[in-house]
Amino acid sequence: MKLKTRLLPFESANFTVILDHNVAKKLDVKLGDRVIVRFNGRSLTAIVNTAKDFPIDSIGIYTNLARVLGISEGDEVEVEATSPPLSLQIIRKKLQGLKLESDEIYLLVKDIVEGKLSELELAAFVTAVHFQGMVPSEIYDFTISMVNTGQTLNLKKKPILDKHSLGGVPGDKTSLLVVPIIASLGYTIPKTSSRAITSAAGTADRMEVLAPVTFSIEEIEEIIHKTNGCIVWGGSLNLAPADDIIIRVEYPLGIDPFFIPSILAKKLAVGSTHIVLDIPTGRGTKVKTLEEARRISQSFHEIAKMLNMNLQTVATYAEEPIGHAIGPALEAREALQALKTLNPPDLVDKAASLAGTLLEMVGEKDGYEMAIEALKSGKAEKKLREIIEAQGGDPNIQPEDITLGDKTYTLHANDSGFVYYIDNSFLATLGKTAGAPIDKGAGVYIHVKLGEKVKKGQPLITIYSSSSAKLQLVEKLIEENTPILVGRTAGRRMLLEKIQYQPTRLVPLER
Ligand SMILES: O=P(O)(O)OC[C@H]1O[C@H](OP(=O)(O)O)[C@H](O)[C@@H]1O
Ligand SMILES: Nc1ccnc(=O)[nH]1
């Protein structure tokens, strides 16, 4: 059937079209079925949404579909019903707890990249993997398939250093320091990051406060040629493009069962030769204990060995947020301050430890001291400014130029004493409820760290948002729950809380 296109200003993870009820009936498709859309010798499978009283000579086209097929308003397209993709059967197989074969995984990843699966179907798959897990061969096949369904970066200058975190600890802006430290010492570091998965900001969200993060492969090569490094969004690059589509489904669910393929595929796609992999370990994060961190490290190594990758995993302290700032703008500001002042100390120590580990992997001695020297001398700050400029941002940006949410709420200490508990996961929830990471200025500033002495009435945390309604939701959450506990004595406090039974209360998702 031939239909005229109406461009609709919406994006979706898959390709979506809108048809009038009667047109859908004529095509013999229902809500959620698939159609093939053909235009100018190219075609795509799209998922049908139906509407009442939509013009019967037209088809509503979402922006991402229009972009890929090069469709403009009023173009004529050919539309025809098609059957569900084979990969749906593969999802069913995983739901039954069965192991997937290489060719099945490739087909599934290809269908994900080609937008053939709806978010609902993808969510079922992500949830199945969350509960069923994957065996090493599946993780390996997933990683390879994610790379082979995208483009790759072929940098000539070796070695290629890289750093990646499993994520999960709030406020982890470490990459914004590690990349310039390494690049300032003459090494190549093509850092691609994802956006937030479980937290209030991912590195791509943080960097976007300072400069654009969306580039083509050719543009990335140019940025790296100029500066030795980059900090860009993996999802924009068509490097392992399945990754970002999966992350969009994982984000609202607050789960991350694909972390190994997600991370290793990105590293493989840029040709990294030496990788330091950070496993933040602590309460309220993805990895709660050192034992768990060691187990995850084993799995990473098993896959890295199959891929011939040189990997060093490190477990890092994550019992509380890194630094004080949580949320894209607050974190970008804190990273700039840290490059200038070497404060806060935990952030600087973490960045120097990771950069130092990488430097020693390529044969340098005293990597930690080298990294600290790159910070002290101002070389690392200068390098970040070069990278910001090469990515199209303002190289002279100062911490105080960064705009934060104009609505704030501060929680004060009810009592004097010592901070003995900080709830990582609840702080991430507060940041997200305030609007982060989409609202770049939204987030949480924690005024105190574990073990610090506080006086009654002293501010504990300040929440930023650009929305009063969101801030009210935050206040409500804080009425029901405490993100920071203060006790009268220094050191150990055994009683954390007398927990009230609340029959109607929903238990937050385990992350
Ligand atoms: O905390 P959540 O949102 O789960 O994890 C996602 C974050 O972890 C990784 O950090 P990096 O790129 O090594 O800095 C990802 O790229 C992303 O920025
Ligand atoms: N699943 C992931 C966790 C952390 N970083 C990523 O890029 N992906």
TrEMBL record:
<dbReference type="GO" id="GO:0016763">
    <property type="term" value="F:pentosyltransferase activity"/>
</dbReference>
<keyword id="KW-0808">Transferase</keyword>
<feature type="active site" description="Proton donor">
    <location>
        <position position="256"/>
    </location>
</feature>
<comment type="function">
    <text>Catalyzes the conversion of AMP and phosphate to adenine and ribose 1,5-bisphosphate (R15P). Exhibits phosphorylase activity toward CMP and UMP in addition to AMP. Functions in an archaeal AMP degradation pathway, together with R15P isomerase and RubisCO.</text>
</comment>
<dbReference type="GO" id="GO:0006196">
    <property type="term" value="P:AMP catabolic process"/>
</dbReference>
<feature type="binding site">
    <location>
        <position position="262"/>
    </location>
    <ligand>
        <name>AMP</name>
    </ligand>
</feature>
<dbReference type="InterPro" id="IPR035902">
    <property type="entry name" value="Nuc_phospho_transferase"/>
</dbReference>
<comment type="similarity">
    <text>Belongs to the thymidine/pyrimidine-nucleoside phosphorylase family. Type 2 subfamily.</text>
</comment>
<feature type="domain" description="Pyrimidine nucleoside phosphorylase C-terminal">
    <location>
        <begin position="418"/>
        <end position="485"/>
    </location>
</feature>
<dbReference type="InterPro" id="IPR000053">
    <property type="entry name" value="Thymidine/pyrmidine_PPase"/>
</dbReference>
<feature type="binding site">
    <location>
        <position position="286"/>
    </location>
    <ligand>
        <name>AMP</name>
    </ligand>
</feature>
<protein>
    <recommendedName>
        <fullName>AMP phosphorylase</fullName>
        <ecNumber>2.4.2.57</ecNumber>
    </recommendedName>
</protein>
<dbReference type="GO" id="GO:0006206">
    <property type="term" value="P:pyrimidine nucleobase metabolic process"/>
</dbReference>
<dbReference type="InterPro" id="IPR017713">
    <property type="entry name" value="AMP_phosphorylase"/>
</dbReference>
<dbReference type="Pfam" id="PF02885">
    <property type="entry name" value="Glycos_trans_3N"/>
</dbReference>
<dbReference type="InterPro" id="IPR036320">
    <property type="entry name" value="Glycosyl_Trfase_fam3_N_dom_sf"/>
</dbReference>
<dbReference type="Pfam" id="PF07831">
    <property type="entry name" value="PYNP_C"/>
</dbReference>
<dbReference type="InterPro" id="IPR036566">
    <property type="entry name" value="PYNP-like_C_sf"/>
</dbReference>
<dbReference type="GO" id="GO:0046125">
    <property type="term" value="P:pyrimidine deoxyribonucleoside metabolic process"/>
</dbReference>
<dbReference type="GO" id="GO:0016208">
    <property type="term" value="F:AMP binding"/>
</dbReference>
<dbReference type="InterPro" id="IPR017872">
    <property type="entry name" value="Pyrmidine_PPase_CS"/>
</dbReference>
<feature type="binding site">
    <location>
        <begin position="194"/>
        <end position="199"/>
    </location>
    <ligand>
        <name>AMP</name>
    </ligand>
</feature>
<keyword id="KW-0328">Glycosyltransferase</keyword>
<dbReference type="GO" id="GO:0004645">
    <property type="term" value="F:1,4-alpha-oligoglucan phosphorylase activity"/>
</dbReference>
<feature type="binding site">
    <location>
        <position position="168"/>
    </location>
    <ligand>
        <name>AMP</name>
    </ligand>
</feature>
<dbReference type="GO" id="GO:0005829">
    <property type="term" value="C:cytosol"/>
</dbReference>
<dbReference type="InterPro" id="IPR013466">
    <property type="entry name" value="Thymidine/AMP_Pase"/>
</dbReference>
<dbReference type="InterPro" id="IPR000312">
    <property type="entry name" value="Glycosyl_Trfase_fam3"/>
</dbReference>
<dbReference type="InterPro" id="IPR013102">
    <property type="entry name" value="PYNP_C"/>
</dbReference>
<feature type="binding site">
    <location>
        <position position="203"/>
    </location>
    <ligand>
        <name>AMP</name>
    </ligand>
</feature>
<dbReference type="Pfam" id="PF00591">
    <property type="entry name" value="Glycos_transf_3"/>
</dbReference>
<dbReference type="InterPro" id="IPR017459">
    <property type="entry name" value="Glycosyl_Trfase_fam3_N_dom"/>
</dbReference>
